[in-house]
Amino acid sequence: MNRSIFFIALLSAAVFHGGAAELVSYQLDEDRLEVVSGEPIERPLRQIRYAQSVPAPHTEPPLLLTLGGINEELTQKYIEQYSRPGGIKWLSAIMERGEPYLGFIRGEIEKRNMPAELVYLPVIESAYSTAAVSRSGATGLWQFMRNSIGPYDMRINEWMDERRDFWKSTLGALNKLEDEYKRVGSWELALASYNAGIGTVLKAQKKYPGADYWELCEKRAFKNETIQYIPRLLAVSYILSNPRRFGMEIKWPENPQWTRIPVGRSVDLGLVAEYAGLPGADLKKANSELFYGITPPDSGYHIKVPSSQAESVALVLEDPDLPLIRYYFHTIRRGDTLSELARHYGISVNQIAGSNPGLQPRYLKIGQRLMIPAFREPESAGPRQNRVPEIAAAGEIPFAGTHLVKRGESLWSIALAYNVNPETLASANGMGLNDTLNIGRALRIPAGR
Fold this sequence. Notes:
The structure is a single chain. By secondary structure, the protein is of the alpha+beta class. It has 4 domains: 67-246, Lysozyme; 258-318, no CATH class; 327-386, Membrane-bound Lytic Murein Transglycosylase D, Chain A (Roll); 401-445, LysM domain (Membrane-bound Lytic Murein Transglycosylase D, Chain A, Roll), CATH 3.10.350.10. It has a 3-stranded antiparallel β-sheet with strand order 1-2-3. The protein is 39% helix and 12% strand. 35% of the residues are buried.
């Protein structure tokens, strides 16, 4: 075998160790890969020659090592876009938003010895928002569709949407990526599968045997979104792994060592936080899959708290004398039906029935008293506030709302305000990502945001 030397940009060195990325020289000899030398990268990315995918030393996590060509061109394009003032401001805000989850996600990636760059995948998937919903209905940090959560221990019901559970969705996403990696043979193709579906990649591999991700992109075996998917990830990884070069200050919080505590009954997280002496908003944010901030009457449900707060929360949950949920008491009047009561109190018929054991909906009696969980204000608070979350069908999210551009706004800042990916917002308005916005221009935004 001829001896070859590959020069590889180790983006993940900065991801996990907080230092500058390194340019490392590898020497390939008799199928053995050894580190020969290392030096800091001082050149822009366009001057770096990517190498063919080769296994990294077993002590290091695998990397997204890729060949130049389309990768280098598109990656550079996205580096230039994201490194402009609007893009840097957007990335800084996204990383600040992701602080509660970064330690947990990074720890899971390290534990599995997966590519370090995956810690940045939620940046391009959801802008690190657990509440993110795409135009096609994909939801949460990792943008799962309703029909894809079955194998990954996530549920959607009248109480919650666990695609928004940072713990379960992270484990599900990493399991999914590992499964797809085993089927398609490379991390690039596993990511393409995550974006376009495993069937799309398997079909492309069958049509072009032996072709890697970049070759399949050049053959237009994927749609444009998938062709640009990994270059976007690499560009974001490069910038966020070298924040000082781009005038950024990124805080990498220590892993708060999240703990899951079984609840076993319905409790209001606001009351739990109050009795435990914790910020209620923090506890609700950690469990943002819950529609009302109230846990389901399910013995298998666990709430997530930092381990440093676990003891105080557990003591509250174990105290039978503490009232941990609020109720309205409703006296049945002539003409009352459960469906009308559910509409008035902003909850479902099943939730009323569950709080009143033995209730027979068809035989309500005048004067009968019902306990109504106080999830929301009654109807007098206004229709938007008492509306039950729509979980029946997640179709495409229409861009039917309107935003009038104000002085100082950019596409990046508007995307951040409406919790939508800037590329998606630009596409919905027939614009380029860095086009100039005129004051007063009407932009289409997701309906209801």
